[in-house]
Amino acid sequence: MIRDHVRARDAHNHAITIRDQHRDGVRAYGAHCHRLPILVHQAGLAAALHHTAALKPEKAWLLDHLAEQLETAELIGGKDREALLGAIRDAGLAETWQLTREVMRCLDWYRRFAHSVLKVRTSDEEDGGDHP
């Protein structure tokens, strides 16, 4: 299967799971799907993902989903946020670029499905801060 199809399939399945099983977190999760690519671009991968880990649990679910994506792509050795964050902290320059490219490709699909499946638009902002 083409890797982009796998990214899309997995992101779609994650969006459906959020929509169907975590209704209270849909808005926060979807809004972060729109914001995280900007954070990665502005602050870098490690800073953006570690920042996400400190946010509300609904937003940090995205880390687990990205970890699954990167494990499927055989770029990290685990399917949870700790594996993802550890891999990024330990990565050299070439690995960081590879992880960043893959995360951004995955985030493109999460952003699309946040819009189409979760019905969260880029203008949807949460009231309150981004603290746990």
How are the SSEs ordered, and which strands pair?
Elements: H1 3-21, H2 26-43, H3 45-53, H4 57-72, H5 81-90, H6 93-116
Helix pairs in contact: 1-6, 2-3, 2-4, 2-6, 3-5
Description:
The protein is mainly alpha-helical. It has one domain: AF1862-like domain (Peroxidase, domain 1), CATH 1.10.520.30. It contains six helices and no strands. It has helices at residues 3-21, 26-43, 45-53, 57-72, 81-90, 93-116. Helix 1 (3-21) packs across helix 6, helix 2 (26-43) runs antiparallel to helix 3 and helix 3 runs antiparallel to helix 5 (81-90). The longest helix is centred in the C-terminal third of the chain and has 24 residues, at 93-116. The chain is globular and about 35 Å long. The model is unreliable at 126-132 (pLDDT under 50).
H/E element order? HHHHHH
Q: Which class of secondary structure composition applies to the elements?
A: mainly alpha
Proportion of residues in extended strands: under 5%
Q: Quote the average pLDDT.
A: 91
Instruction: Give the radius of gyration.
Output: 14 Å
Number of strands: 0
Helical amount among residues, as a percent range?
over 70%
**Count of the separate structural domains:** 1
What's the CATH C level?
A: Mainly Alpha
Q: What is the name of the CATH topology?
A: Peroxidase, domain 1
Q: N-to-C terminal Cα separation, in Å?
A: 38 Å
Ranges where pLDDT stays below 50 over 5 or more residues in a row are: 126-132
Question: What form results from the Cα inertia axes?
Answer: globular
Q: What's the CATH architecture?
A: Orthogonal Bundle
